[in-house]
């Protein structure tokens, strides 16, 4: 008989994991303290955009395999395995992970654990957290030492989370007992049978895997952005450089796209939290490296904004700028720490008239940055613009016709902050083109539209 499962926390991670477990054939109950969110999920409604998740949610809430509650006692009575998937936001003072929600979930669940069970952490936490939570669980749970704890980090990419849940490239479990390993092998049996590696570690290693992975990816992005600075200084081309070094199997081509840098709810937060924990543990070398990764990433936003200013003759004030993109990456409506919104807001603060368009994240962007104007379409955003800035590489933008858009703008100037467009095609359509790490291109077709005053 399959174990029954609860998922504590129904945000991006928890809702996706709960639906994925139901798809794997388990009976699942999702828990959250937000009653409004739980009501929506119980109706099969997903409160954020993630391709494929809505269909899974509707299927399994309708079948009864997936249900939701706000009651910890109900979740404890129902489940044999409890996945902990609450948020660990960045603290305001030193960038460390804020563990108040993790601790609150353990404190709320533990008093209801009256029989042997397994609590499995999926939240991204500083190394050493799991060992501390073991003592907390044992002291608070009526079942005492028969409550075990494991750690099973998540590796979800927004926009690909369903596939990453059902077809991950690896499963990592940090365990303290053979029973915990056996239960987690049972949970992931179908995935492992298809050839996915199942890596068994201690608790500390499992905690480090997620933060180390995200920090390495962030390092690759910051590295190529640092190379873009050198390319601009020497006349080299960063896209060709990235292709050349990416052919080296030891390096690989992914995450070597120079631009406005990384954002979102994971990479920036995880880099800063990892840095803070490294300092606490005396790892000054790691902390120094991560500080530079973060600094280079933030400088990439400055450089793209400076590029816009240079393109407009040194002044942003009074110019109309169309910003294409609000989400931190395509295929999501997540605007947390979005480079696109940050650059747009800073251009507006400098006196520019900024109009933002995003195919999916306009509503979230407007809620986050109410001082900005948001357009309902690409065409309305670029109409009358002195400059167009591509800051999120949605397919709609990559497939847009530069000749048609050139008839809508006041002056055909483009800053491609993601190096996502065919610059030769845009230049042939009359656009002057700038991008990080690449030589400027001048438009090849004269336009009658007057220059902005």
In angstroms, what separates the terminal alpha carbons?
74 Å
Specify the structural class. Answer: alpha/beta
Specify the helix fraction band: 40-55%
Using DSSP, what is the number of strands? 14
Task: Please indicate the percent range of residues in DSSP E strands (runs of 2 or more).
Answer: 5-15%
What low-confidence regions span 5 or more consecutive residues with pLDDT below 50? Answer: 447-453
Count of helical stretches? 19
Q: What overall geometry do the principal axes of the alpha carbons give? A: elongated
On the 0 to 100 scale, the average pLDDT is: 95
Which sequence of strands runs across the widest sheet?
3-2-1-4-5-6
Task: Describe the largest sheet.
Answer: 6 strands, parallel
- Based on CA atoms alone, the radius of gyration comes out at 24 Å
Give a structural overview.
The chain has 19 helices and 14 strands. The strands form 3 sheets. The protein has a 6-stranded parallel beta sheet with strand order 3-2-1-4-5-6, with helices on both faces. Strands 11-10-9-12-13-14 form a 6-stranded parallel beta sheet. With 453 residues, it is of the alpha/beta class. Helix 19 links the parallel strand 13 and strand 14. Mean pLDDT is 95; it is low at 447-453. The protein is elongated, with a radius of gyration of 24 Å.
Structural key phrases:
453 residues; alpha/beta; six-stranded parallel beta sheet; 19 helices; 14 strands; 45% helix; elongated
What does this entry show, briefly?
The chain has 453 residues and is α/β, with parallel strands linked by helices. The protein is 45% helix and 13% strand. It has helices at residues 12-23, 35-42, 53-63, 72-78, 100-109, 129-140, 161-166, 178-187, 189-193, 203-234, 238-246, 267-280, 284-311, 339-349, 362-368, 378-382, 395-398, 402-406, 423-428; strands spanning 5-8, 28-31, 66-69, 81-84, 117-121, 147-151, 171-174, 198-201, 320-324, 353-357, 373-374, 387-390, 413-416, 432-434.
């Amino acid at each position: 008989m399959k174990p029954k499962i609860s998922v504590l926390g129904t945000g991006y991670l928890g809702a996706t994991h709960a639906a994925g477990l139901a798809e794997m054939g388990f009976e699942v109950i999702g828990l959250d303290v937000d009653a409004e969110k739980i009501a929506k999920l119980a109706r099969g409604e997903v409160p954020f955009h993630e391709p494929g998740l809505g269909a899974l949610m509707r299927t399994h809430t309708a079948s009864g395999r997936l249900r939701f509650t706000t009651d910890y006692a109900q979740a404890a009575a129902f489940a044999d395995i409890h996945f902990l998937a609450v948020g660990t936001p960045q603290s305001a003072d030193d960038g460390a992970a804020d563990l108040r929600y993790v601790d609150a979930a353990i404190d709320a669940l533990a008093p209801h654990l009256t029989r042997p069970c397994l609590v499995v952490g999926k939240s991204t936490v500083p190394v050493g957290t799991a060992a501390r939570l073991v003592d907390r669980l044992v002291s608070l749970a009526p079942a005492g030492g028969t409550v075990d704890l494991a750690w099973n980090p998540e590796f979800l990419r927004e926009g690909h989370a369903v596939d990453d849940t059902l077809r991950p490239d690896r499963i990592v479990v940090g365990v303290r007992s053979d029973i915990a390993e056996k239960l987690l092998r049972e949970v992931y049996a179908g995935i492992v049978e298809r050839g996915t590696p199942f890596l068994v570690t201690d608790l500390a290693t499992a905690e480090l895997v997620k933060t180390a992975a995200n920090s390495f990816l962030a390092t690759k992005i910051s590295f190529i952005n640092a190379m873009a600075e050198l390319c601009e200084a020497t006349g080299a081309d960063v896209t060709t450089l990235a292709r050349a070094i990416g052919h080296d199997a030891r390096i690989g081509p992914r995450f070597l796209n120079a631009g406005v840098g990384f954002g979102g709810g994971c990479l920036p937060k995880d880099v800063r939290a990892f840095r803070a924990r490294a300092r606490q543990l005396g790892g000054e070398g790691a902390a120094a490296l991560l500080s530079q990764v973060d600094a280079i990433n933030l400088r990439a936003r400055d450089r793209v904004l400076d590029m816009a200013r240079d393109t407009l003759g040194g002044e942003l004030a009074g110019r109309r700028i169309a910003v294409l993109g609000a989400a931190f990456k395509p295929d999501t409506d997540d605007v947390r720490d979005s480079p696109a919104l940050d650059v747009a807001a800073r251009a507006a603060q400098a006196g520019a008239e900024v109009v933002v368009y995003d195919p999916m994240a306009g509503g979230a962007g407007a809620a986050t940055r109410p001082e900005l104007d948001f357009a309902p379409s690409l065409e309305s955003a670029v109409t009358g613009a002195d400059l167009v800035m591509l800051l999120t590489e949605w397919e709609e933008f990559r497939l847009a016709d530069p000749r048609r858009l050139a008839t809508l703008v006041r002056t055909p100037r483009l800053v491609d902050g993601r190096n996502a467009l065919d610059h030769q095609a845009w230049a042939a359509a009359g656009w002057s083109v700038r991008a990080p790490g690449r030589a400027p291109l001048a438009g090849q077709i004269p336009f009658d539209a007057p220059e902005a005053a």
